[in-house]
Design a protein that fits this description.
There is one protein chain. The chain folds into 2 domains: 185 residues, no CATH class; 159 residues, OB fold (Dihydrolipoamide Acetyltransferase, E2P), CATH 2.40.50.110. It is of the alpha/beta class. The strands form 3 sheets. Strands 1, 2, 3, 4, 5 and 6 form a 6-stranded mixed β-sheet that branches. The chain has a 5-stranded mixed β-sheet with strand order 7-13-10-9-8, sandwiched between helices. A two-stranded antiparallel ribbon has the order 11-12. A hairpin with a 2-residue loop joins strand 11 and strand 12.
Length: 359
Amino acid sequence: MSSRIREKLTPAQRATPLEPYIDPGFVHHRKIETILGPSGMRIIDDLIRQLPELPEWQRPVRIDHVYTEIMLAFCNKLSVPPLEEFLVSRQGRMFCSTEELAPCKDVFKTERAVSIWVPPGIYDRRVEFHYSTEHIRSHTLRNELHKGSKLSIIAELHNEDDKVIVFHPIIIGFPWLRRGDSTPDFEIIPWGPEFFENFVEDFDEFKKVLEIPEPPDPEPMRHISERAFKECLRRILGDTATKDWGGETSDYYTAHLHLKGQRVTAAFLLKGPADFVPMDLRHLGKKHDQILRLARESAQVLVVQHCHDILSPVRETLRTFAVQPSRARRYCLIDGRDSLRLLQAYDLYDWAVQKSRDA
């Protein structure tokens, strides 16, 4: 499956070190003060005192950014999970992630609105966000809530029953990127969390795939077992492949990848041809728990590899787990065509076929 960022940005541009952020349009100050307590509010108060003289309209906007900045640091420090992980693990009472919301037709005419989560797959209960519209400062955000949109959210669990889980939002805003110490040679505004996707050719150890044209279909990967593909990774990277076991969080872990010269750690979820069809979320375990386990690795890059095509819901789910507004990791999908290119680029396809037959 093609990706817009693969077509529009070069490997060097995709490796630019950028930082995630939320451009806030909804900030619940009172709830944040309760969560952070006196010590956290002292930090916010100090930052607000440092603000320069500002026009009357601009000061509240800057204060919203101060609250957002500290809440993101709080979520990072406490490892607040994305929504899907929260729903499975139930650790704590908060989540922080970028999620798709359904249209909220009443947001312009009610004091208390409800937005509904649109999960990437099937979830057994409805997830709702209940919020007071008086906290919406941005007309643009109100429009996006009205029509439905992908938004970054920090929220707290309010209540639940057998059919509905209700959250109260703390911050809602647009997925954003910040430059940090980097100086990109491209416009960063359009990309949001999509930016953190990398591709097999972006990694120094795999860059020979650029010499191999994209095959018309992944059919030759039908003959390559998951174990043989893992052994090929080991050969390319000079790693030691460990044996699979039932409690593993990933199928392969390496500290020998480089992204434009910078060493990165990577955890791989590998799927062989036992089910040689395009990968959707049903291939990733009950409630997508294989991606959840992958995301629990300490790796800087999360990789999902499959012998066939990889469908959009898998990309969306992996992105949600990897790219939180409070913490962004890079993610990569290696589908059957790219898997085949990788084996051909390093003269390993025939060896992998034989290895698969001998197993």
